């Protein structure tokens, strides 16, 4: 149980870090009401990269096993098993909404 809780806390910290790292850029875009100064190529390539990474993790056989395992285990253990997908999804969403 201790190892699972440590994994859960570390992975949650990484997800929080991903979201916080994009926060200044989102605040800047919202307050200026413009994305002036951000290279369109940077956004295009970042979104393409994030989409590819997210699609890759969704088609990975281990992800299908983790999702199927959620029918047999409780909520916290299921959530811990899917945190890798959540990390890549948070990265993708943060970049996508830039």
Average pLDDT over all residues: 85
- Pairing-aware structural class of the strands and helices? mainly alpha
- Helical residues, percent: over 70%
| Radius of gyration from CA coordinates | 16 Å
What's the assembly state of these chains?
single chain
Number of strands: 0
What does this structure look like?
The chain is mainly alpha-helical. It is 83% helix and 0% strand. It contains 5 helices and no strands. The chain has helices spanning 2-32, 40-59, 61-69, 75-81, 83-96. The chain is elongated. The chain starts with a helix and ends with a helix.
How would you summarize what this structure contains?
This protein has five helices and no strands. With 98 residues, the chain is mainly alpha-helical.
Descriptive key words:
83% helix, 98 residues, mainly alpha, single chain
List the helices and strands and how they pair.
Layout (H helix, E strand, L loop, with lengths): L1 H31 L7 H20 L1 H9 L5 H7 L1 H14 L2
Helix pairs in contact: 1-5, 2-5
């Amino acid at each position: 149980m201790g190892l699972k809780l440590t994994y859960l806390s570390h992975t949650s910290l990484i997800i929080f870090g991903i979201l916080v790292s994009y926060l200044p850029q989102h605040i800047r875009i919202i307050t200026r009401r413009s994305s002036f100064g951000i290279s369109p190529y940077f956004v295009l390539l970042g979104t393409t990269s994030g989409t590819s990474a997210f699609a890759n993790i969704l088609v990975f056989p281990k992800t299908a096993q983790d999702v199927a395992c959620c029918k047999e285990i409780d909520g916290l253990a299921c959530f811990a098993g899917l945190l890798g997908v959540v990390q890549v999804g948070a990265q993708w969403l943060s970049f996508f909404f830039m």
